[in-house]
Amino acid sequence: MKRRLTIGFFVNEIDGDFQTLFWTSIRKAAQKLDVNLIAFEGRILFNTDNISVEHNIVYKLADASRLDGLIIATGTLINKVSHDYFMEYIKAFEGIPKVSIYENIPGVPSILVDNKKGMKSLVDHLVNHHKYRKIGFLKGPLSNDESNERYNAYLEVLEENGIEVDEKIIFNGNFQSETGWETAEYLIKNNIKIDALVCANDEMAVGAIKYFRSMNLDYKENFVVCGFDNAHNSAIITPSLTTVMQPLDMISEKAIELLLEEINGTEVSEVIKLPTSTVIRESCGCEAVVNRSSTFSDYYIRAISNFKVHENLQTYSLDTLFDLLTTALKKLYIKSCFIIRYQEGPVTVKSDIPDFSELMYAYYNNERSDYEDIPFKTRMLVPDVFIPYDRQFTYLVKPLFFNNEHYGFVCFEVDNDDVINFELLRGQISNTLKGALMLLEKERMSEQLREQERMSTLGQLLISIANNIKSYIMAIAGSTVALNSLIDEYTKSITDKSVTIDDHHEIAEEMSSWIERIDGNLRYMTSVLDQINDQYSKFTTRNMDGFSVNDLIDSIKNHIRKFEILNMQKINIKVETDPQLRISGEIINLLQVIDNILVNAAYANIENNADTIDIRIEHMKGCILISLKDYGVGIPKAIKSSIFKKMVTTRGKNATGIGLMLSYSTIKGRFGGDLYFNSETGLGTTFYIKLFL
């Protein structure tokens, strides 16, 4: 079975006055000729007047890896750039057979329309049928060949009929409706009388009519406006617009046929020019019967329906968006939709397209697909599994961006005449992606900072432990040197008859003293390692649900009973928050910290003849604050700054000094919180554990 060819289509937009009809004709021609169509809707090239330039990035996605050929609606793209610049721009697509529409591109087969004949016929109708003499002209972009051809046709008719050209009623435009409005406004405000205004396209003509109507002027007595294109609104506006019709169906079919011949290696004509014809309606002063109601109401109903769906897509959760989007796609009768994210992004419109992307969401053949979260080559547009081989398809590709940050693109399957919903869906998906990715990035950065803090805290802890243990190892090393010296001395004394029994006992006692020192140092290091092992052996489990304040209070009360020294203390617990408030993390890790602080508090109290410890749990802004206050001797000023950094203790050989270091590491590393204290000599110490919610 012969493979169905896939062609690309560059167009500025599909939702517009003329563009809607043009897009529909291209899509239907592709269906008729049984070729797949992938449209890239990228707006006018390099239009830096507004954000539309950001849409240009979508053209970079076109590639021979997915496309057999490319049709470029050149006339809709180059209103802001020169021909030379455009020729340089399309070099990026040299490996793809191409056809240009509306502009003659050297080396590229081009489909043109006879703008001159159609415009001359229109202006001649005004001059010879209506006897108008003072006819103004609103031009299109100066870089657009079609616009210039229409203007020259206007000049030729004036010259052929002996009408002098009046530069005061010739205006520069840009094919946009606002220039039509502004020109009409200028004419009225400056009291410039003309018989008719001819516009280089319908969109500008409609803009002028809207201004005149806003001033409550009667078109039959006060203004005559004509256009060119026979766009959608030309038939439904009041008065209906006299214009020039382009043979859109013929243009579209001929462009595809020409491209197919080129793909197959057939020699093709470099330029094909198709005819235009005048459409006489009301705006020139003629009588015409136009059926507006059905077309207008259908257009209006679709817009209202779409707006409600758009409202229902507002969220900043990707999972929620995808669920809502699935519902919306069904309601809008959109058959397939794919959301693709660049793996290396975001990028800017001037950047190269990343080589690989990830399929974030797939809705295919009217149902959500599980085939998501997979990487693929970006210029393939979608994974091969979503390319139908048993039927013709039309895909529409649009960029996903926020301001100048581009995250990827969305691809819709189009199988009806709707053109309104795609841009609204694209915009909402872009906004949600921005919000969701910002949240993900914030979480990633926060986790990265927490990890850096954990590593920093762990690093400080390990350095301090290593330095402390090193000092004990050096002490052991010193003891072994002394022992070796005593062994040598004792060995020599064995044959020395002058050494008495008392001398032997003295040497043995000295050796025992050094062995006791070694043993004490070893016991200390064993205790340190046991505490480290005990502290971190429980870190391998994670309770994602966390625990409540009530759980913590019950656990503290149970743990107090396990320590004899704590049973000798009066421990008060005051709760100033909702007992059901939940705290993230492992409760056993927090209890180890609290146990260590409470035991230290009890020893400090005993030294100061006190027996009370106050525990307070309160809910402050965004956090839980646990304070543990004793009434002991306080922490000496000399060790305050190093209590969390070094293994320091006020309890002599009865403690290692590692407990508070491990506690600090736990609160910082496991809970992302903070541990600090306030202490006054003779008045006691309060430790504060801050846990962020």
Automatic annotation (TrEMBL):
Domain Histidine kinase: start-end pairs: 464-693
Reactions performed catalytically: ATP + protein L-histidine = ADP + protein N-phospho-L-histidine
Pfam families (alphabetical): HATPase_c, Peripla_BP_3
Keyword terms, alphabetized: ATP-binding, DNA-binding, Kinase, Nucleotide-binding, Transcription, Transcription regulation, Transferase, Two-component regulatory system
UniProt enzyme class: transferase
Enzyme Commission number, as recorded: 2.7.13.3
Source organism superkingdom: Bacteria
Name used for this protein in its record: histidine kinase
